[in-house]
Structures are given as C-alpha cells and as structure tokens.
Design goal:
By secondary structure, this protein is α/β, with parallel strands linked by helices. The protein folds into two domains: 43-73, no CATH class; 81-406, Alkaline Phosphatase, subunit A, CATH 3.40.720.10. Helix content is 33%, strand content 11%. The chain has helices at residues 15-18, 40-55, 57-63, 93-98, 113-116, 118-124, 173-182, 203-210, 259-275, 290-297, 300-322, 369-381, 385-397; strands at residues 82-88, 99-100, 111-112, 140-143, 156-157, 164-165, 217-221, 239-242, 283-288, 331-336, 358-359, 361-364. Residues 1, 3, 90, 173, 292, 296, 350 line the site of zinc ion (ZN).
Length: 407
C-alpha cells in the first residue's frame, strides 16, 4: 500500500489537534467477566430452557398435555451463526455519508451516496432505522456520520458525539487492521510493514480457542500485509489469501492485487466450498483496497469508481451467501473502513493528518433485528475497530463480549 513515509513519524502537529486522546491505548480487555447489560445471556438462558423442554424425555412426558406457549409461535427465533466482516480501505466518511465531493463543499455532492453505494445505501440502507418505525424490521444500522445535522439522517446512530474513530494514533492501515482483527488494541503494530509477534490473541485465535476449527475461518484481502496481523500464534491453520496470487494482473501499486482479482478469489473459494459440501464459514474477512490506492495516486474519479465496484462486489457476495441455507438469515455483516483521509484538498493522504481518525461502520443482519439492536447499543457506547472486532467474536460465539472492559 502506498503511503507517505512521513505518515509513520510524529509530526509537529499537536496531539490535541489531530487526535482524540481517548482513542489511544483504549483496548485493555478483561475476559470472562459477566456483563449484566448484555442481553445475550438472557437469550442463552431461554435457549437452554427451550432445549430442555424439547430434549428431555421425562420433561416432555410431564408437560405433554400442556399446549406450547403461544408467544413462541409469532416470530421465528433469531439466530446469528456466521460473521462476514468487510473493509473498504481508505474510504472517507465524506464519501460514505455525503457522496462524491472531494472538498465536501457546501454546494452539495456531485453524486449522492446512493449513487456511489447503490447496494450499501440503496438496498441495505433501505432496511435502516429511518425507513421503519417498527424496530422489528430494522436490519441495518449505520455509525459515524459526522456530518449529521440534528433531526436529519436519522438512519445513522452512534456514540453520543455520533463519531466512530480509530483506536490508535497512526491513521494508517496495518495498525487499524490489527485492532479490528484483534478486537483489542495491538500496541506493537505501528507501521504498515510490521512483522513481529502480536501481543494479544486475535479474534480468529479466540474463535479457534472457543472451539471452531480452521476450516470454518477465512481471511481474504487485496493488500498482502494483512497476513501479518491475523494471528498471534502463527502459523495458522485457517485459510489466508492475501496479496497478489499467480495469475492475477499486476497493479499499478506494490504489495496488493486489484480488487477484481480478490473478488474472484473469494467467490471461487465460496463456490468450491459449496460444491464439496464443506459447510458454512463461521468467520469470513474480506478487505478491498483499490479505493485507497487510487486516492494516493490522486485520481478522484478512479477513487469513486473503486467504491462503486466494491459496492457491486459486496452485492454479489451478499446475494450468493443469502441464497445459501447455511448463511441465510443467520449471518451478521460488518462493513467498515480502516481509516479516514485528510479533509478537503488533503483527501489524497492519511496518517497523522486531521480527518484520518474518523471511520464509518455499518452492521446488517437480515432477520435478526433484536440481535442488531443489542450490537448497536455496544457501538453506541464506543464505535471503533476494537469494538467491531469484539462484536464479530460475540456474534459468532454468542458469548458476552464484555465491552465495558474495552474502554
Ligand atoms: Zn493508504
């Protein structure tokens, strides 16, 4: 990934000006503590009771004459079994929440966000809060709209200040991916070429520890360096496919393949799994990258085109997954970016420049409105990469994410 070498070094700009201190070192986690605020525990207890009700022959015998509780017949129980996490590298909040407008001028966007992201905003966004007064129908939530005016854009929720931020103070890619895939701040990742050992287990490590097997987890990315932050205990036994592969076209930039080749690899892998009856992926991570590269080159038109294509790739990926019984109505989609970019005429770059710290996020979970509401509550308290990583782990396992310990 192209980056200004200066991005990695502290500049004279004051910390206060460029970064919010509360985002730094915020990720010390404590695991295992029960958080009474987390409603999954109640759902889990209910599931155990229902299981006893259905599975214990003695219990069934004694209650056989009792009619089933009426409330259960109204709505199908919600299940979240799989998590798909998608990252669009270096897509600013400006483009995501406003649309095509390089300098975010007051004249309004040259192209609205629904034109830029017809699937994310037009289709999934139509299932967000503003479209439904009935909370049981809300299947999409957006976070981090820092352009929101009071009373408008009510489909975006988030922390009190409405902002989502990175967890570190670098504003570059790899530390952000490390925090996102860690569900916790990984303080040793300070550059895009980090090669060392991660101090904390990642979300993937924890999923394996929890009992998932390697064949249920997969990581795909256009940019090759993401491979360095997928596990604290390499080598890994899950599928990792990052960077340019043989047969891929050679892009204009180093260390990555084009998103088109990434997307082909993801779809090919999913189709091949279906063909051999491999069962669902419980955690799938896909990181697109063309957007960031075209921005660094300074080609705003191609930066926008990269987003339109990413939107179309996600549409195809989503359409495929939701057509499969293994995924349909039991998959949580988390979509975000790794970092923002400079404001106005500084849109080409990012790092320790103001604007880079702001990210956006959306979560979508068809048929799982109640689950979405509880996850949204957690993001409403603190919207950042580590929270998103934690949510991914919690949703896949049904465990208490213990978010209170994360900030
Ligand atoms: Zn970049």
């Amino acid at each position: 990934m192209i980056q200004n070498a200066g991005d990695l070094r502290p500049k004279s700009m004051s910390t206060k000006e460029s970064y919010n201190n509360s985002t730094v070192n915020a990720g010390v986690r404590r695991r295992g503590a029960f958080s009474p605020r987390w409603p999954l525990a109640g759902a889990g207890l209910l599931a155990i009771l229902l299981y006893m009700y259905a599975g214990d022959s003695h219990f069934v015998k004694t209650v056989a004459q009792t009619p089933a509780p009426a409330a259960k017949q109204d709505a199908a129980p919600e299940t979240t079994e799989n998590v798909v996490m998608i990252v669009l590298d270096g897509v600013r909040t400006e483009e995501f929440f406003i649309g095509a407008n390089p300098y975010a001028s007051k004249r309004g966007p040259a192209q609205a966000k629904e034109k830029l992201f017809p699937f994310l905003w037009g289709e999934l966004g139509a299932r967000a809060q503003s479209a439904h007064s009935d909370s049981a129908k809300i299947e999409t939530r957006f976070f981090g709209d820092r352009f929101r005016r009071r009373g408008r854009n009510r489909d975006a929720a988030g922390p009190k200040d409405g902002l989502c931020r990175i967890d570190n103070n670098y504003g570059i890619s790899l530390p952000a991916y490390a925090d996102l895939l860690g569900g916790v701040r990984q303080p040793t990742v300070r550059s895009n070429t980090f090669q060392g050992r991660l101090p904390h287990p990642t979300v993937l490590d924890r999923l394996l520890e929890h009992g998932f097997v390697g064949s249920e987890l997969a990581v795909f990315s256009s940019w090759k360096h993401i491979a360095s932050v997928v596990s604290a205990t390499p080598p890994v036994d899950f599928h990792v496919n990052t960077g340019r592969q043989s047969g891929d076209r050679r892009p204009r930039w180093k260390d990555a393949r084009y998103d088109r080749d990434l997307h082909k690899a993801v779809m090919g892998y999913l189709g091949e799994r279906t063909d051999r009856g491999a069962g669902p992926l419980r955690f799938l991570f896909v990181a697109y990258n063309d957007s960031d590269e075209w921005a660094h080159i300074g080609n705003y038109g191609r930066y926008l085109n990269a987003m339109r294509r990413q939107d179309a790739y996600i549409r195809e990926l989503y359409g495929y997954l939701e057509s499969q019984p293994d995924y349909r109505a039991k998959t949580l989609y988390i979509i975000t970016t790794d970092h923002g970019r400079g404001r106005g005429r500084h849109w080409k770059s990012h790092g320790r420049i103001p604007g880079s710290q702001y990210i956006w996020a959306m979560i979508h979970a068809p048929g799982q409105s109640a689950r979405l509401t509880s996850l949204a509550r957690a993001l409403g308290e603190r919207c950042s990469h580590t929270t998103l990583g934690d949510l991914a782990y919690a949703a896949a396992t049904g465990e208490d994410p213990d978010l209170a310990a994360n900030y």
